[in-house]
């Protein structure tokens, strides 16, 4: 069996069928099933495992589908194994502390290579990994960084290394880290946290790990910075790269496909029809915007909408996000240091210069001196967007803000985002899950750490006290750690979005443990 650069035995995957996204593999059968409302969640069938050869199933479907009394639901259950949600199969003991509960929970969220489902859309990985929980039965890219924060607190260096090696394997195999290890996620990534994972791991194992994973960091950088071959023009874009005046290159979210997402097929088709009717836009353009927002992890939020209360006005690929470009700056700085450790001085200087130029661009294109806050930038309109979001705290997390700017951001946090249960994601209530009244663990941590970076310890401690208290309250009430929380009214559950609130939950567990220990 083939091995990758780390000596991993490659999983038994036959390229072609096994790496084909289910909507491409099953064609109109897939469309018919997703449009039939057999499953309330479109992701369910995208994760189904065929019990026979797909060509046989397709042939049988075409042979029988027009017969009187044909039962499509029965056909699906006869020829596919329906995946179950990940339920924590032990009764939570709410007399335990939340921390003790989480420590007991890790094994139930961990998947072993030999126990991974074969067939279907899952891409097997060579090492154990932690899944978020609920409907999320696979590893997720940016989730995993925040999960690792908690694994570090539990001394699970082995599991952190395994997960990083899985991501290195995905980069070696596909040239990037997909959203998750599913074939239908291969056309997009997620916020690029790989270099932060390497930094976290280096805190335990030393700087040598920067050199070890240098090839994978470089390959991920090349993926995000693909400029294409066309003659460059200012305020134009190719894939994830936006070219701006004076040779400035910044990044946006993108997806290489412009079709309905298999895991949200019916919802995407319905929204595209609504958008085409309301705006001068094609369905393919809407699908691209939806997929790009899914790459951002913020799926979905008024952050991406032209009209804040109208989902069908989504315009993700027109927007240069502040958080993404802070992450890319971190990757450039990490590459520079790794090359320096490797005695490659020209490459060190190259990436130092790239990081310096991006730092200047963050100031130019994301700091709104009228609002005194970091905003996303619409490069098509050549202006800031109107969405004031917690993404504006990323420059504090990465120490890219000047001191005066940090004071303004702190004021925004206190006045616009802080509630009795933690921080809102945006101040707009739209019914989307990345809007009010919901709060999410990763953004609580980014903001908390950003505040501490600028010595706003009082505000940071208030935030952590509110968020931890809400986590603990809900655990005592339900015995569960949740994907997201209602931070405005802590007596109500979070809601909105395309699916029910999920329990588990990887990144909530990780942030809770790290924040509980007041780690800076």
Percent in helix? 40-55%
CATH class of the domain at 98-234 and 390-516: Mainly Alpha
Strand order of the largest sheet: 5-6-7
Shape: globular
- What would you report as the Rg, rounded to the nearest angstrom? 23 Å
CATH architecture of the domain at 98-234 and 390-516: Alpha/alpha barrel
Number of helices, counting only DSSP H or I runs of 4 residues or more:
20
The largest β sheet comes out as: 3 strands, antiparallel
Strand content: 5-15%
| Low-pLDDT residue intervals, each spanning 5 or more residues | 9-17
What structural class do the secondary elements suggest? mainly alpha
Q: Report the mean per-residue pLDDT as an integer.
A: 93
| Count of extended strands | 16
CATH T-level fold name of the domain at 98-234 and 390-516: Glycosyltransferase
Distance between the termini: 44 Å
SSE blueprint:
Layout: H1 22-26, H2 28-35, H3 42-46, E1 49-50, H4 54-64, H5 72-79, E2 80-81, H6 98-109, E3 110-111, E4 129-130, H7 141-153, H8 157-174, H9 194-205, H10 208-212, H11 214-224, E5 236-238, E6 241-244, E7 248-251, H12 265-278, H13 283-296, E8 319-320, H14 322-341, H15 345-366, E9 367-368, E10 373-374, E11 377-378, E12 383-384, H16 394-397, H17 403-417, E13 418-419, E14 422-423, E15 438-440, H18 441-453, H19 457-478, E16 484-486, H20 506-516
Antiparallel strand pairs: 1-2, 3-4, 5-6, 6-7, 8-11, 9-10, 11-12, 13-14, 15-16
Helix pairs in contact: 6-20, 7-8, 7-9, 7-20, 8-9, 9-14, 11-14, 12-13, 14-15, 18-19, 18-20, 19-20
